[in-house]
Amino acid sequence: MIAANISNRVVIEAVEWPLGNFPPTYQRFSVWGDTLTILSNEVPDGSQFALYYGKLHTLDASTSTIPTPHERLVSLGAAGFALVEWAAYAVNRVNEGGELTSINYRLEGEARLNLFRSDLKRLGRQNRNRIRQLYIPYTTPVSKSIVTGPQ
Q1: Fewest Cβ atoms closer than 10 Å to its Cβ: which of 19, 112, 138, 142?
Q2: Largest CA distance in the chain
Q3: Does 121 have pLDDT greater than 80?
Q4: 126-151 per-position pLDDT tens digit
Q5: Alpha-carbon distance values, 3 to 11, 52, 87, 132 (Å)
Q6: 135 lies in a domain?
Q7: Residue 43 and residue 86 share a domain
Q8: CA pair distance 27, 24, nearest whole angstrom
Q9: In a 10 Å sphere around its CB, with 0-12 CB exposed, 13-18 middle and 19+ buried, how is residue 63 labelled?
Q10: Residue 79: which residues within 8 A CB-CB, separation 6 or more?
Q11: Which residue from 108, 112, 116, 111 is spatially nearest to 74, judged by alpha carbons?
Q12: pLDDT of residue 114
């Protein structure tokens, strides 16, 4: 299967095939570039399947796919990065705020970025407790406690 026509794809979470089973039947798969390969003993017959994936948000002058509760978070991060950038720009320049202008910009930017990162960490998928294994692994996992030498 070619996964190239999924625009702004970040990660493929799961492949469900065949559809309609209870509990759902998830397939082992691998992704290389834009090609998704199902690693199953059963060969797919071309019937429909469900692909669960994550993709980038869109944000431009006319549209946004960012959920409304997260718009504040995006604004906070943008302001923090802008302030840190402006602090670097303001070094060794004449500023109306005096010689502490670049330091104040940097401190305010870092404070906003700290809030941004802590909120982002709280919302991030990596910090949620969840079972990530939906199927038996295709190959036996490598032991982290047993060392094997060459055969």
Answers
A1: 142
A2: 73
A3: yes
A4: 555 555 555 555 566 666 666 666 65
A5: 11, 12, 42, 21
A6: no
A7: no
A8: 10
A9: exposed
A10: 109, 112
A11: 116
A12: 95
